[in-house]
Design brief:
single chain, alpha+beta, 4-stranded parallel beta sheet, 18 strands, globular
Length: 527
């Protein structure tokens, strides 16, 4: 339904087709009805969106019964468009079942291959609150499903006589709701030069007894051991030159006996993490060479309004896409990419028609790409919802001084299978109508269509310097390239997405603000 419109979509579609039939009758002199259009005896209204992006306008045009054309310069956007407006309508709702079958195979194999990179977390039953378990439960310990490892970046104290390691977390809130408050309280061990964290709960903020919002401010803080100033310049210079360390603050897990999450701060949980990350790094490098077409060493481009104006990324110590993911994250994603390749080979061997196999694997690739929105080292913990806040919600890449390293096998709502269900739900919805859109990749300033092709052009143009479309999509591109680039070599020839022809005002690329304004306005005029 549309806002303010009580008609159903089918009635709105009929209204549109009747209007189109009336116009065709007037133009041709022959009596044409909406039924003639529906049954293929007269042409449907042809609609173009030449800035199609994620495909929202083409999708609505299809729902209205139009013959729909989608165009976008960006290869990531082009692949996203295929998945709601072409493949479901081409292959039908059964495509969703095929995708789930092969995705389950990919996920199970990936989980088995990386199992030793995740240590099981077992807790004494007594660790749980009284209302979580009953006395009838005989076991002394219970293994919990880890949702995330919560890290803070660290830096050496600038005072040479101190020798302490300074955590750079911005805040330590874990849960901030009217129904309860949970935060990590830092404890300073000046003798051992170590900051330890303890979980504190309360019915109100005052019950906690400290301010969890007190952390580093504008990249600056104080050494907790000697009180030396750790200023922003030192933090930025050290990060850019050397890179930051990491310290585990807590593990976030599912409650095995009820709803909600458990927050576990125990130093023993960090045991073996250095070795596991080193093993993950070793495997990731082997997988990267095996898959080829790696773009992980490309610099992360500037994003957001400030980035488009200045060319600065504000990611101190994180210069490349490789550095934006922990070794474990890279190993998991590359393992999953390898299994997608294997699944494609098995599909063809088992008799799946080549074009259907191509569609299934495209969805598997975009599934992996979707996971990277939260499965990276730049996400933030949203304490009001007790979940990770993805990169796309911020629409820019910004440094995260504390971040949750999500476990995509953890069983929480944002895990791998939960992400796939969003995708297959769309196919089951849109695959009921056999009217696929025609998606092409190209520039809006040089349309690959003849004049007088369309009845309407309906588009939502780029937002001047407010959105860094190509830069934001690069984090998807660098993972799609080794995963499904072999299916679309024409779209993955470059190391990153194309930017020279992109219709945005990027002062750092186009020679200043005035030149960027002229480029943007001229591009829109040409379009």
């Amino acid at each position: 339904r549309y806002p303010g419109d009580t008609r159903t979509i089918s009635e709105a579609q009929l209204h549109l087709l009747e209007a189109h039939a009336e116009r065709l009758t007037h133009e041709t002199g022959e009596k044409i009805s909406a039924q003639d259009i529906e049954e293929g005896r007269a042409p449907r209204p042809k609609v173009l969106d030449m800035f199609a992006g994620g495909g929202a306008i083409p999708l609505e045009a299809l729902r209205m019964g139009c013959e729909t054309y989608a165009l976008d310069l960006n290869p990531v956007a082009h692949l996203i468009e295929l998945c709601p407006v072409t493949y479901p309508q081409q292959f039908g709702t059964g495509l969703a079942d095929d995708i789930e079958t092969w995705a389950r195979r990919v996920l199970e194999r990936t989980k088995e291959a990386v199992a030793d990179l995740y240590a099981p977390v077992s807790l004494p039953v007594g660790e749980f609150q009284a209302d979580i378990f009953s006395s009838s439960q005989p076991q002394q310990t219970v293994t919990v499903s880890v949702v995330a490892h919560y890290w803070t970046r660290t830096i050496p104290c600038p005072n040479p006589s101190c020798g302490g390691t300074v955590p750079l977390y911005r805040q330590t809130w874990l849960r901030k709701k009217d129904s309860g408050f949970i935060a990590l309280k830092p404890h300073i061990d000046r003798k051992q030069k170590q900051v330890r964290f303890h979980v504190v709960r309360g019915d109100s903020e005052a019950d906690l007894g400290f301010d969890p919002g007190e952390g580093s401010e504008n990249t600056a803080t104080d050494c907790p051991f000697c009180k030396a100033a750790v200023n922003a310049k030192y933090v930025r210079n050290y990060g850019n030159a050397t890179g930051f360390g990491q310290q585990l603050m807590c593990v976030i897990a599912l409650n095995p006996y009820g709803s909600g999450k458990l927050y576990i701060a125990d130093e023993s949980l960090a045991e073996g993490e250095i070795e596991r990350q080193a093993l993950a790094e070793e495997r990731a490098l082997v997988l990267e060479k095996e898959l080829g077409h790696s773009s992980l060493d490309e610099d992360i481009p500037p994003t957001g309004n400030a980035g488009l104006s200045s060319g600065k990324s504000y990611l101190y110590g994180i210069k490349t896409f490789r550095q934006a993911f922990t070794p474990r994250q890279r190993c998991v994603l590359l393992t999953m990419a390898k299994e997608v390749h294997q699944a494609h080979r098995e599909m063809l061997t088992e008799g799946v028609e080549a074009e259907r196999a191509r569609a299934i694997v495209t969805y598997l690739g975009l599934w992996l790409s979707r996971l990277t929105d939260r499965f990276n080292a730049l996400v933030r913990w949203e304490n009001s919802g007790e979940k990770a806040q993805g990169l796309t919600s911020m629409k820019r890449f910004a440094m995260a001084w504390d971040f949750p390293e999500i476990n995509i096998f953890g069983g929480a709502s944002g895990d791998a299978w939960g992400n796939l269900e969003y995708i297959t739900a769309v196919i089951r919805q849109e695959g009921r109508v056999a009217n696929p859109a025609q998606c092409r990749r190209g520039s809006a300033t040089d349309l690959p269509y003849a004049d007088q092709t369309f009845d309407a052009v309906i588009t939502d143009p780029p937002y001047y310097d407010n959105e860094s479309y190509s830069q934001l999509s690069d984090v998807c591109y660098v993972w799609l390239r080794p995963t499904i680039g072999f299916l679309y070599p024409e779209h993955f020839a470059g190391n990153l997405t194309p930017k020279k022809k992109e219709c945005v005002a990027a002062a750092y690329l186009q020679g200043g603000k005035e030149a960027a304004r002229c480029f943007y306005e001229d591009s829109l005029f040409q379009s």
